[in-house]
Amino acid sequence: MVPDHDDGGDSLELRLNGLYAALEATSELPIDREANRWLGEAEAVARDAAMNDLETTVARERVREVDRLLSEVGEVDSERARERVAEAKRLCGEILEG
Questions:
Q1: Is residue 88 included in any domain, yes or no?
Q2: What is the 3-state secondary structure (H, E, C) of the chain?
Q3: Tens of pLDDT, residues 22-56
Q4: Does 53 reside within a domain?
């Protein structure tokens, strides 16, 4: 079960929800097919971490997988998509460091 707060700062649950929201926001943006495939997979894993009552270690494993998938995305043409991907990467880092 994800606790209300991890080692400090925002709650882990809030960060997981933010991660999912950032990736979900890319689904309707004009993104090339290859990047869209990686983002779709990352979104699905982030949704699992955010929406299910997982142990903290399991949630962080999911986030580690999201981070790996995001590393495969490469460059995207849409400025809004780049912003969302950067936000997702930032949140992955915060969660994994926590």
A1: yes
A2: CCCCCCCCCCCHHHHHHHHHHHHHCCCCCCCCHHHHHHHHHHHHHHHHHHHCCCCHHHHHHHHHHHHHHHHCCCCCCCHHHHHHHHHHHHHHHHHHHC
A3: 999 999 899 999 999 999 999 999 999 999 999 99
A4: yes
For residue 3, being part of any structural domain is answered with no
39: nearest Cα among 79, 73, 10? 73
Q: CA-to-CA distance for 60 and 16, rounded, in angstroms?
A: 9
In a domain, 30, yes or no: yes
Grade residue 4 by pLDDT with cuts at 50, 70 and 90.
very low
Residue 60's domain comprises 12-97
How far is the C-alpha of 20 from the C-alpha of 49, rounded, in Å?
A: 8
Both structure tokens of 37: 């495939």
